[in-house]
Every structure is written in C-alpha cells, then in structure tokens.
Write a structure and sequence with these properties.
Layout lengths: L1 H17 L3 E9 L3 E6 L4 E7 L7 E6 L5 E6 L4 E6 L5 E6 L5 E11 L5 E11 L4 E12 L10 E4 L6 E4 L6 E4 L3 E4 L6 E5 L26 E9 L11 E9 L5 E8 L4 E6 L5 E6 L1 E6 L4 E7 L6 E4 L6 E4 L4 E5 L6 E6 L13 E6 L3
Antiparallel strand pairs: 1-2, 1-27, 2-3, 4-5, 5-6, 6-7, 8-9, 9-10, 10-11, 12-13, 13-14, 14-15, 16-17, 17-18, 19-20, 20-21, 21-22, 23-24, 24-25, 25-26
Length: 365
C-alpha cells in the first residue's frame, strides 16, 4: 500500500509539474499584411507575422479551436492563409481564382468547432471575351489539412450579401448573416430556418440597418450587433423616432433577440457580450456600456480616436478596443476608465477593418 501511495504521489507531482501555463492572447491584423499576437496580461505584442502574398491587405481572421493556427482572409479577399501562431509558418492556403472564374470573398468565413473544415462565402464571376457572367454566390468548404494548394471539398449555393458566417457550438449548424440570418445544414447548404432581420414584422418600423463583419463571440458564443431603425409613427424631427437596438444570437441555444436600448445618439460599429451576460460593450468614437437586463444604456465615454472592433477578457475584467489605427486600448468594464494601451510595431499602416480575436492556450515563449 505504501509503495502504491508513493507511486501515485509521484505521478501526480510529475503531471502537475509538466502542466503548461495558459495565457489569454488577442489577435489583430494590420496593413500592409501582418498578424500580431498580444499578451493582454503583460500588455505587449509577443508575436508579429508577415502574411505571405497578402496583397497589402488583411481582413477577417479566425483562430483554430486549439489556438495554434490563425486563418486570415487576405490578398484583397481572394485568398485565405493559415499561419502557425508560434512560428508564422504558412500551413494552409486557399487561392480562390480558378481559371477564367474570379472568386472573391467578402469577410465571411468560419472554422468548424473540431478545426477540420473552413466555410468561406464567395462571389463568383466568369471572365468571358466580351462580358462578365455573374455566377451564383456560394459557400466553399475546405479541409484544413489540405496544405498550401487547398481546393474546396464541396460547395453549395447560398443567398447573396452574406457578410458573416458562424458555426454553432455543437458544430451541427452554420449561421449566415445577410439580409436575414440563415440557419443552414453545413453539409449541403439546406436552409432549415430563417431568422428575420430585413424581413422583420415590427409595426410602425422601417427596415433595419446593420453594418457588421466583426466576429466577436469568442468568449461567450453569443454574436451581437447594433441594429438601427426608425419608428414611422413618429415625426421625423422627434428624437424618439430613431432607435438603436442590439441583436443577439446565442450560438449554443439558438436564441435570437433584437431589443432597442436607446434613441439613436451615436454610432456603434461593433459590440461584444460580457461573459457574465449582464452587459454588452460597443465601440466607434465612444465606448458604450449596455445593460442587457433592462435594455438601457448604462454608461458611455469618449475614446482617444475611432475604434472599430471590441472584445473582452475571458473573466470579463477587461474590455479591449482596436481596429482603425495602430493601437489596442484596454478599459475597465465597471467605470469605462482606460487602463492600458498597446501600440503595434513600427511599419503598421493601420488595422482598418481587422477584427479582434481572443484565444487561450499555453504560454508563448
């Protein structure tokens, strides 16, 4: 018995000793074609990688579930590149152009929850001798193990004007945000449910206006976005006629809501829901705090300059804003006081519309 106890104790100590420390990192991208990995606890950039053949552009990006690869839409949205986060090595590449067919992405892509497939929305045009022939819009599916000359393993036609793809938490469904939100079978593109947005049925309300291509659900599996609309039963000079709401889609339960929270007074480009689910935070020229229990504006502060994208730490203790310029700022979510600012490396053009993605993984050395 004594020998058994000694052996078990040794096994426990050994396993504890080799257990890797984990750290939370933020990923952003900048012109003319770089991906940056930021350690948010230390408030510094720990990796910067050049994207091969980037065409001076970095748009959407999505980390693999294990946080070891980041997939980047680049080359003027005509390619997706997979970079090893540790080394910067290109481990995946899909170039969309096929002979006389010019294929173009438009921000929207996502990786499956098991990390094995990429789903990419593509616009397709056949370049003919005297005309351009518009082909159906589609989602192309790639095997992430396909290397540097990846070709779709399947594809299916989808509605036009898709600008966000989101895989459900159980990996069973693919949500596509366009005029409405389409819940699809990712094997064949069958639309099994349409969640109304442009085709909502609110009385005395205009068509909604949504501009969002920032995937910011890493910490909660809840996608959120501002929604703007006009109450048509009020006078055009009445401030109460103009409403800002928040749309939320729970990628776990499928719950879908749109709730007004203020008369429109400022623009908000993107939002993120806190892990506790009590607040959402939105950014553009101001940082806004939205109470999700009462659907009211809780607080708002001016920022140093315009920021397009917002994300949040896994414990909800810090809010991050980036995009537009060459820095990422950190705010206290309680009082919206700025508590940190990381400037990106020399040579940064700007972040433009690049998103902010969060990963948790073993600490980078």
């Amino acid at each position: 018995m004594r020998r058994i106890v000694i052996v078990l104790t040794a096994v426990f100590l050994f396993s504890s000793g080799v257990q890797a420390d984990t750290t939370e990192y933020l990923i952003t991208g900048t012109k003319p074609g770089y991906i940056h990995i930021l350690d948010m606890a230390q408030q510094k950039v720990v990796r910067s990688h050049a994207v091969p053949n980037a065409g001076r552009t970095v748009f959407s990006f999505t980390p693999s579930p294990d946080g070891k690869v980041v997939y980047v839409m680049t080359n003027r949205m005509k390619s997706i590149v997979g970079l090893d986060i540790d080394t910067g090595e290109q481990v995946f590449r899909a170039d969309f152009v096929e002979g006389d067919i010019r294929r173009q992405g438009f921000f929207a892509f996502d990786v499956s929850r098991d990390g094995k497939e990429l789903y990419v929305y593509q616009l397709s045009t056949q370049i003919m001798l005297s005309e351009y022939k518009q082909l159906p819009t589609r989602i192309a599916v790639y095997d992430t193990s396909s290397g540097l000359e990846a070709q779709p393993i399947r594809s299916f036609d989808v509605p036009r004007r898709i600008h966000m793809l989101m895989k459900s938490k159980n990996d069973k469904w693919l949500y596509a945000l366009g005029f409405d939100i389409y819940k699809m079978n990712p094997e064949n593109g069958e639309i099994v449910e349409t969640l109304p947005l442009r085709n909502w049925t609110l009385e005395n309300r205009s068509l909604p206006d949504v501009l969002d291509f920032w995937p910011l659900w890493d910490q909660t599996d809840i996608f959120s976005t501002p929604v703007y609309s006009v109450k048509t039963d009020k006078a055009v000079d009445d401030p109460a006629a103009y409403k800002t709401g928040l749309m939320t889609l729970d990628l776990d339960s499928g719950k879908y809501e749109i709730n007004d929270f203020e008369n429109t007074s400022v623009l908000i480009f993107s939002t993120v829901v806190s892990p506790a689910g009590k607040y959402a935070f939105g950014t553009y020229t101001q940082l806004s705090k939205i109470d999700l229990k009462t659907n009211t504006l809780a607080a708002r502060v001016d920022q140093d300059h315009t920021y397009y994208a917002v994300n949040i730490s896994g414990d909800g203790g810090q809010v991050y804003v980036g995009g537009a310029a060459c820095d990422v700022a950190t705010y206290d979510p309680e009082n919206l006081k700025k508590i940190g600012q990381i400037f990106l490396p020399k040579g940064c053009g700007d972040q433009s519309t690049a998103s902010l993605r969060m990963i948790q993984r073993e600490t980078l050395k």
